[in-house]
Specification:
190 residues, alpha/beta, eight-stranded parallel sheet, 2 helices, globular
């Protein structure tokens, strides 16, 4: 009886504490795969200027890496990824924050670093599960007040952006639960 109890405890505890591991496939490896079975795609460094239509058939994605491409925009068709938790579009040619991100309700990590984005859309306040916002090295000098609605937000990376001390202080005081990553403030921008 004790053995059965111990085995039951071990099985139950391993289920409770199991890490949420996700198999991430390279784009080339999934060309003939069943789209319903793929939850993570790495389509980085493919020199895409436009997202191929085939990507939208992978509707169950939880992880999508589109970094280091040449994307100028993220089309509204990306709204099909309702289960997406991580989106990485670091180092592309985006000059505005893609409005389609607001259609991704489960998003927890959003990486927009090293683009040319000057502002974030107000609808970012809809991303109530967002924990990480990485916007470093973009010419952003303002944040929408709707970010205050993001109660699960844990970290915002705004390094490599010239920001004044008042900007930094405002956000650190407004959201003390968030770890803000700033470069030293520049008095030249205020």
């Amino acid at each position: 009886m004790k053995l059965l109890l111990a085995i039951t405890f071990l099985c139950t505890s391993s289920l409770l504490f199991a890490q949420d591991t996700l198999k991430i496939y390279k784009w080339e490896a999934i060309q003939k795969a069943n789209p319903d079975t793929i939850l993570g795609i790495d389509a980085s460094k493919l020199k895409w200027e436009k997202i191929p239509e085939k990507l939208y058939s992978f509707k169950n994605l939880k992880y999508l890496n589109l970094s280091k491409n040449k994307l100028k925009e993220l089309p509204l068709e990306m709204g099909v990824f309702k289960s997406l938790k991580t989106l990485d579009v670091t180092k592309n040619d985006l000059d505005s924050a893609p409005i389609v991100i607001c259609q991704l309700p489960k998003l927890q990590k959003l990486h927009l670093a090293r683009n040319r984005i000057s502002s974030l859309p107000a609808c970012i306040g809809y991303l109530t599960d967002l924990k990480v916002l990485d916007i470093w090295d973009n010419p952003i000098n303002t944040l929408p007040e709707e970010i205050l609605k993001l109660k699960k937000l844990e970290a915002v990376d705004m390094r490599s952006i010239m920001l004044g001390p008042h900007f930094q202080q405002k956000w650190e005081e407004s959201m003390p639960q968030v770890k803000w990553y700033f470069d030293p403030p520049c008095h030249c921008v205020e």
